[in-house]
Amino acid sequence: MPIRYFFKQLLLPPGGLLLLLLVAWWLRRRSPRLAALCFILGFGGLWLMSLPVTVEWAARILESEVALDRSEWSGAKQRAQAIVVLGAGREQADPAWSSDQPSHIALERLRYASRLSKASGLPILTSGGLHYGEPPSEALLAAEALQRDFATPTQWLEERSRTTWENALYSAEMLKAAGIQRIVLVTSASHMPRSRWCFEQVGLEVIAAPVGFLGVPNGRPFGGWLPEAKAVWQNGMLLNEAVGMLVYPLLYGDDAE
Question: Can you give the pTM of this predicted structure?
């Protein structure tokens, strides 16, 4: 995991763009034209990554699954047998809580899964393994938050996964053992296409329930054309999804049942 994390952070923006700027500085005397090209690509990439309007446009492309209509919530039990909510990282040792907590993106997913469960009566499976090998698992933190903060029980905990593919693989093992083939899948809207593909590859029928859409009007002054720190982070997540959607079929396309 640390090696994969190192290369991922080094190559994907902003790491890769910062490397281009470093190369531009190194080549400024040896090859001025190449240095200028690297500078333009690096600086231009960082500028685009910092714009809320880039978030909005990119998300509209990636968020291909529509939101589940609220009128369908109560009827989900006729179409599915369980709700699966995917983890989204954790905040470590938050002093306010004196313990690890689900990330704010994870809490957004959990809140939505709780609403769906209460409306439909469907049981919940939380999926998410250890954070670089350190307990507690994301699934356990999610289950604790569901019970404590949303008064919603969790029936299954999938605590082994480290990737979206493993979320699907190990969740499917548990659900199929319980005779479940049809699920409502809860995750972030930009993450849903890749997640749905994974769960369908392992033989589950999926009703998509995306949440946390970014492809909506950004509401910023000047239309979102001014740089913003939050946009860098959001664009990084979207780029990670775009790369994942390209790479996953190559890595796991032959592993389908």
Answer: 0.93
